[in-house]
Amino acid sequence: MTDTTEVRSLTKELLASHPPATTDRTDFLKARFDAGLAWVHYPVGLGGLGAPRSLQAVVDAELAAAGAPDNDPRRIGIGLGMAAPTILRFGTDEQKRRLLRPLWVGEEVWCQLFSEPGAGSDLAALGTRAVRDGDHWVVDGQKVWTSSAHVARWAILIARTDPTLPKHQGITYFLCDMTDPGVEVRPLRQITGEAEFNEVFLTGVRIPDSRRLGPVGEGWKVAQTTLMNERVSIGGSRIPREGGMIGPVAKTWRERPELRTHELHRRLLDLWVDAEVARLAGERLRQQLVAGQPGPEGSGMKLAFARLNQEISGLEVELRGDEGLLYDDWTMRRPELVDFTGRDAGYRYLRSKGNSIEGGTSEVLLNIVAERVLGLPSEPRSDKDIAWKDLSR
Ligand SMILES: Cc1cc2nc3c(=O)[nH]c(=O)nc-3n(C[C@H](O)[C@H](O)[C@H](O)COP(=O)(O)OP(=O)(O)OC[C@H]3O[C@@H](n4cnc5c(N)ncnc54)[C@H](O)[C@@H]3O)c2cc1C
After folding, report:
1. Nearest 5°: phi and psi at 204?
2. pLDDT at position 1, please?
3. Is a pLDDT exceeding 80 seen at residue 291?
4. Where in this chain does the record put each Acyl-CoA dehydrogenase/oxidase N-terminal domain (predicted)?
5. Which residue ranges have their beta carbon within 6 Å of ligand 1?
6. pLDDT band at 74; cut points 50, 70, 90
7. Which of 22, 108, 206, 387 falls between 20 and 30 A from 372, CA-CA?
């Protein structure tokens, strides 16, 4: 069993053989992956040591103190947060070996082809079809709100392979090469003015059966792993005190006494405490994750993150008065990352509106908490046993 001393000494060896000051960033990240220090809880040979997840904090602290580059999880959030845990759990050895290293290093960006115009909250209603043709699948359909599709090399994709079964069955999970013929990515401008996400049209895309993830018809089960991890990755990333949205507001409060009012002071203090409670609850959730896959509690974290971001960014706009209404850039940028703290108050205010929609809406997450955490009766579902092709649309 790997322990703290061993992990620390492996980290020191990596730093000695690849001094951060003189090593190219990508070379350093590749060496870190090969040393098993990327995600220590992953298996040996796949960037890990098969060690307890909690030891990652030891590695991260040593590397940060030495000024080593990190793999910028924001840019590659979908790969790290959603694709990787799903591939690790359901992938073949070949898929894991081929895909995880470039994913972690950031050489290959991932996107998520789940949502469709008629299948968002009710994701199991999806209509994108995959039809078997020898050792390939031919995929036709339309996806929407696909973050990072414009920079992605790979996508996790769910498609219907048997429309005669009820909607949660007959779905299969694929790994789609975004450079394949028939994949068309069109920008979608959002409330911030940017096109951070896209529509993706799939026309006769041929996906080899070797890029299927999990058994035919069991894509819904595979997708649950992705979705549970998505909520933790959106709501529960590790941040220092005042490292999230509350940071810029607290800074403005300290530096600009002329903006202060008694009422704003009271609200800022309430939100500061809520932000700190959410941050520490996230830390607790990560400790629980040491024991395995995330549970429905991650939905609670994601809910809290969305509510807080919207309240804090609203307070910030009020605090800044007329200045808060200024917007820094209305050109249709196509960003690779969502930079909450590096932009203006107006950007934070507008972008946080998406927090209660992306990764599952707050209303749907409340349903999950009610049913799976509190054990309350589930929503009535009349379409559970009807073949997907017979559902009214
Ligand atoms: C910034 C952003 C990035 C995104 N990135 C991606 C991505 O990369 N890949 C991807 O696949 N998707 C992505 N999405 C899509 C996102 O997951 C969906 O928008 C979301 O699941 C909601 O689906 P919908 O938009 O179809 O809304 P709908 O499902 O039509 O919901 C409309 C409203 O009805 C409510 N509602 C629906 N069902 C219920 C219910 N049972 N009980 C109570 N209320 C209900 C919803 O909460 C919502 O308020 C992104 C969305 C955003 C905003």
Report:
1. 60, 35
2. 59
3. no
4. 26-107
5. 111-112, 114-115, 120-122, 145-147, 197, 354, 357-361, 363-364, 367, 379
6. low
7. 387
